[in-house]
Design brief:
The protein contains three helices and four strands. With 96 residues, it is an alpha+beta fold. The protein has one domain: Roll (Ribosomal Protein L24e, Chain: T), CATH 2.30.170.40. Strand 1 and strand 2 form a beta hairpin.
């Protein structure tokens, strides 16, 4: 399982751990990933995703999973999230 957010594409970064004597050793900065189950309003079904805590706040701020997916860029989303986005678009197109 990769350490990558399925909604924002946030992934591990590299940098230096710097000691008091200013020695630098390689280290990794990992994203704060959490497993969540979100409800899609258009699909009326739960969706399990592995997203960062920052993405969870952003989804809440934008008004839910459907609104976030419709506004998100396709190159940032994972394959599962892209499939959910397609389903939501299809459902909303048939509803209107």
């Amino acid at each position: 399982m990769s350490r990558r957010c399925e909604l924002t594409g946030k992934t591990a970064l590299t940098g230096h751990k710097v000691s008091h004597s200013n020695r630098k050793t390689k280290r990794r900065f990992l994203p704060n990933l959490v497993n969540v189950t979100m409800i899609s309003d258009a699909l009326s079904q739960p969706v399990k995703l592995r997203i960062s805590a920052n993405a969870l706040k952003t989804v809440d701020h934008r008004g839910g999973l459907d609104a976030f997916l419709l506004k998100a860029k396709d190159d940032e989303l994972s394959e599962r999230a892209l499939e959910i986005k397609r389903q939501v678009k299809k459902k909303l197109a048939t509803a209107s």
